[in-house]
Amino acid sequence: MDIEDLEPRKVPPKPRNLEEMSLEALAEYVAELEAEIERAKVAIAGKRQARSLADSVFRK
User: Fold this and answer.
1) Nearest CA to 28 among 46, 16, 10?
2) Using alpha carbons only, what angle is made at residue 46 by residues 15 and 32, rounded to the nearest 5 degrees?
3) How many other C-beta atoms are found inside a 10 Å radius of the C-beta of residue 30?
4) Residue 33: CB atoms within 10 Å
5) CA of 23: how far to CAs of 2, 4, 13, 20, 28, in Å?
6) What is the 3-state secondary structure (H, E, C) of the chain?
7) What tens digit of pLDDT does each residue of 10-51 get?
8) Taking the model in full, what pTM does it have?
C-alpha cells in the first residue's frame, strides 16, 4: 500500500467564469492567484533546501 492511497483524493476546483466577473473582481482574483503562486514557490524552495541538506548528509 502506498502512503498516497491513505490521503483523501483532491477534487480540483471548478474554474471561475471570468466572463461574469467585473474588472475589480478580476484584478482581485489575479492578485489572489499571484499570492498563491508565490506561496508555492516558497514551499518549493524550502523543499529543495531540505533535499539538498539530506543529500549532503546521506551521500558521503
Assistant:
1) 16
2) 30
3) 10
4) 10
5) 45, 40, 22, 10, 9
6) CCHHHHCCCCCCCCCCCHHHCCHHHHHHHHHHHHHHHHHHHHHHHHHHHHHHHHHHHHCC
7) 888 888 999 999 999 999 999 999 999 999 999 999 999 999
8) 0.67
Residue 5 φ then ψ, to 5°: -65, -20
> Cα separation of 14 and 60, whole Å?
47
- The grid coordinates listed for 26 are 478580476
Q: Which residue has the cell 539530506?
A: 54
Distance CA 60, CA 2 (A): 29
